[in-house]
Amino acid sequence: MSIFDGLAAVEEEILKCMKCGNCQAVCPLYQESRREPAVARGKIRLAAAVLEGKLEPTAGLAERFALCLTCLACVASCPSGVKVDRIILAARTALTQRKGLPFIKKTVFTGLSRPRLFDLGVKTAARIQGLLFKHIEPGKMQPRFPIGLELRRILPPLAPVPFRDQVAEKHTVERPVATVAFFTGCMTNYLYPGIGQAALRVLKAHGVDVIIPRLQHCCGAPILYNGAADMALEMARSHVDLFSGVQADAIITVCGTCGEAFKHLYPELLEDISGYGKRAREVAAKILDITQFLHRLPFDPKLFKALELAVTYHQPCHLGRGLGVAQEPLSIIRSIPGVNYLPLKEPARCCGNAGSFSLTHYDLSYQILTRKLKDIEGTGAQLVVTGCPACRMHLTDGLTQEQMPQNVVHTVELLARSLDEE
Amino acid sequence: MFVAQAIAALRRELGEENVITSPEDLLCYSYDATADLPEQKPDVVVTPENVDQVVKVVKIARQFRLPIYPRGSGTNLSGGTVPIKGGIVLSTLKMNRILEIDPSNLTATVQPGVIIQDLNNAVAPYGLIYPPDPGTVATATMGGSVAECSGGLRGLKYGVTRHYVMGLEVVLAGGEVIRYGGKTVKNVTGYDLVRLFTGSEGTLGIITEIIVRLIPAPQARETMLAGFSRLAGAGNAVADIIGQKVIPATLEIMDRVTVETVENFAHVGLPTDVAAILLIEVDGIPEVVKSEAAAVRQVIAKNGGWVKTAENDEEREKLWNARRAALPALARRKPTTILEDATVPRSKITDMLLAVEDIGRRYNLVIGTFGHAGDGNLHPTILADARNEEEMERVRQAVEEIFRAALSLGGTLSGEHGIGIAKKQFLPWEMGNSGVQVLKKIKQALDPDNLLNPGKIVDLEEGQA
User: Fold this and answer.
1) pLDDT at position A298
2) What fold, for B218-325?
3) Which chain A residues touch B if contact means CB-CB below 8 Å?
4) Do B332 and A81 touch (CB under 8 A)?
5) Which residues contact B187 (CB under 8 A, 6 or more apart)?
6) Contacts of B328 in chain A (CB under 8 A)
7) Which member of A15, A18, A49 has the closest CB to residue B27?
């Protein structure tokens, strides 16, 4: 039984909570509101009440479970080892099954789950985005009308040509040391093709053959985190089919959440689907974040030219706590000649984006971001490095609104910048 | 009917944003950190922002005869914040300002919703510390820890919360605001009401401001981990360390079950062939620390133990990790964790550990014991499964036996967790019926209508309420 089958699957997790309240010390949402339903202990009590049939699956209840960043900070600090994220996902799934999704989410997710339609839609939107958004400066735009987005919000424009349309499917080098399949993720494909280009360049420079399977699409994580497991099932299956068919030593991701989808959510979701359980686990076993993969390759300092830069690093939640990739990005950043790494006081604290959470709860999301911005300011860094396009979007939004000078790049972009091309 | 009117009045006086009534939210204020207790939803939760609003809540509660349950972070271990009779939960979390740090008088003045660790972070730049450090130091509020008089790991050398509270502002059951004590070291004006309200568990008044004493941070420290193949060796070492006139800041013990569990779960490199382990930290002036640490090592050797000394901060962290892992590791063995805090005079530590072992054996329960050996405050931790009613019944009987054992050794029901609901029925065992009567008279004098945290520490019988 999986967490996508309902709360009964997490009964043991719910029982493990000893209600000590230690989660209060680390929950970014609780620290803003200081209200018990915001923190894991409160949500676990609510989940228990639903399981016992003592609480109706009301809209109010769905909103309580929506108030979670799934940043995993509570999971990392829980003395009893309660996997709170599993309880949250099970509860969201159970409530969505009974109450359905809000209209907007349903529309968006239906779009995401139909790859060809989605691709066409985004490309069309890229052509007409000037009607809805005003251009601020390169890479930044702002809504002209309140189209479900806050007017003050700064967003990256859609790429005129998505990353996967910019590049060939197969890239070979002489005497390759390895072959990888590259899962780009939607944000890299449509918003930040530069991350994809950087990944490709760095991998090739390291003697790695890269395959970017054409038929890949959204990983489905936004849908799964919103409790619509049924809609994501086909997406998971098609990716397991696609990537099982690729001969590669590893499957590379450049976003912790996409990595989480492949590594943890697919095996859970497909566990009982005939012909998929084992293959989903095999695909999951091959998933590596790009920094994890690069870190395993022999490092050639001659490849890199010096960058005289003071940088700091924001650890994305799903990359750091989700996939356990915390040290590799730092080690890569430190290995670039000339780069001065100035750590944040709380590098692993959530930036507040949390995917669609920033759409539905922008004010709260921005409040949490404000703490991160203060932390960045305190370091004196010129540039912020992170390993997730969604964090990058949120950080850029805040830095621009607060008129701070720093830009944000993906770890692999920093590395690409220092690649010596001469 | 009354409830609806009271809620309307609360909304009027405190504003919509400070009155919580949705059933989903109320459920999240029906419990605290205590295991195996009944839960109860309040009728309403209020989050006053200042003392005037607290007074208004008290007056509305009086008018409509609704009980008030003050609550900080809800991390206590005695049922102290469970609103067992419904009514109003008064959360202090919006009153969370540090009002003043006064380095010349070595005091800090805080609102009740300040987190203990936040106070420590704020006074650190002055080279000062606020010593009480319960396990919940990163989550518990100052108001809650004063109301519960929490202890912690440094009790032996630095005392507990009551030794640091110098002054209080309290809202009484009638709505009057009183201030007792202040910044003076000496104060014998009238009865010592600061002490009375410290540890009163919210039954006598609502604390709205606290003046605490701060002390200079120790300049140096040395940390040691010692292992013993016999429990008596550890127990005697504790007594002998004190006998050598050394008062360690920390003197913690973990029994065999705890050490085995910690090693199995956390793999911190502890040998599992020991009967008990002590974690010892001496602090103070560098020269004194050095000679005290040497004395400690001698005592350990004399009692047949081995010792590891931390050479730097990294090694110190490693030794501390073993102790910090005690509760988490035990908690992961079974779904339900019952954490007790029976306390005995320091000289009876060995007897108490043996008694707990024996109780565990007789009731066929896994009990890991760790705790503050230096001040006799042990935490027998019983591991069970709440779904197994037969096992839970054995747990309850074992807990009673642990209380009896502690009392028979000259100890007390609770060293630092408080009485609340969890231990209320056992009070006569320790203080006799006449002793309990005195508590009731105090309660009646200050809260004649039994509105403040009713049902905690003592019950007022019909006619008394």
Assistant:
1) 83
2) Alpha-Beta Plaits (3.30.70)
3) 12, 15-16, 18-22, 24-25, 34-37, 41-42, 45-46, 49, 55, 58, 60-61, 64, 79-81
4) yes
5) B166, B181
6) 79-81
7) A49
Q: What is the mean pLDDT of residues B383-402?
A: 96
Q: Determine the topology of domain A299-418 in CATH.
A: Rossmann fold (3.40.50)
The domains of chain A are located at: 3-99, 299-418
CATH class of the domain at A3-99? mainly alpha
Strand order in the sheet with B306-309: B306-309, B220-228, B276-284, B250-255, B366-372, B377-384, B336-339
pLDDT at B463 over 50: no
Which amino acid is residue B265, in one-letter code?
F
pLDDT in tens, A116-135: 999 999 999 999 898 889 99
Mutation site for B-interface testing, chosen from A35, A46, A67, A74 by largest number of B Cβ within 10 Å: A35
Q: What pLDDT digit, counting tens, does each position of B140-186 carry?
A: 999 999 999 999 899 999 999 999 999 999 999 999 999 999 999 99
What pLDDT is attached to residue B465?
42
Q: Which CATH number fits domain B334-418: 3.30.70.2740, 3.30.479.30, 3.20.20.70, 1.10.260.40?
A: 3.30.70.2740
- The CATH class of the B98-216 domain is alpha beta
SS3 track for B389-450: HHHHHHHHHHHHHHHHHHHHCCCECCCCCCCCCCCHHHHHHHHHHHHHHHHHHHHHHHCCCC
Which residues of chain A make contact with B32, given a CB cutoff of 8 A? 19, 21
Strand-pair partners of A135: A141
Count of other CB atoms within 10 angstroms of residue A308: 9
Q: Matching CATH topology for B218-325 and B334-418? A: yes
Q: Give the mean pLDDT of A74-87.
A: 94
Count the helices and strands in chain B (H runs, E runs): 15, 18
Q: A19 and B32 in contact by Cβ < 8 A? A: yes
Q: Which of A404, A197, A411 is nearest to A315 (CA)?
A: A411
Which is nearest to B322 in space by CA: B368, B279, B364?
Answer: B279
Which two three-digit tokens encode residue A272? 């009982």
Q: What percent of chain A has pLDDT over 90?
A: 85
For the structural domain made of B2-91, what CATH number should be given? Answer: 3.30.43.10
The per-residue pLDDT for A148 is 79
Chain mean pLDDT for chain B: 95
**3-state SS class at B165:** strand
**A305 within 8 A of A315, measured Cβ to Cβ:** no
pLDDT at A420: 67
For residue B453, with 0-12 CB atoms within 10 Å meaning exposed, 13-18 middle and 19 or more buried, which class applies? buried
pTM of the model: 0.94
Can you give the pLDDT at residue B272? 83
pLDDT tens for each residue of A389-422:
999 999 999 999 999 999 999 999 999 999 865 4
Enumerate the residues of chain A whose CB falls inside 8 A of the CB of residue B337. Answer: 18, 80
The ranges assigned to domains in chain B are 2-91, 98-216, 218-325, 334-418, 423-465
Pair A327, A335: CB distance under 8 Å: no
pLDDT at res. A325: 98
pLDDT digits (tens, 9 = 90+) for B287-333: 999 999 999 999 999 999 999 999 999 999 888 888 888 888 898 89
Under 8 Å CB-to-CB from A208, ≥6 apart: which residues? A173, A176, A177, A178, A179, A180, A297
**Identity (one letter) of the amino acid at A108?**
V
pLDDT at B259 over 70: yes
Contact yes or no for A81 and B93 at CB 8 A: no
- Cβ contact (<8 Å) for B31 and A18? no
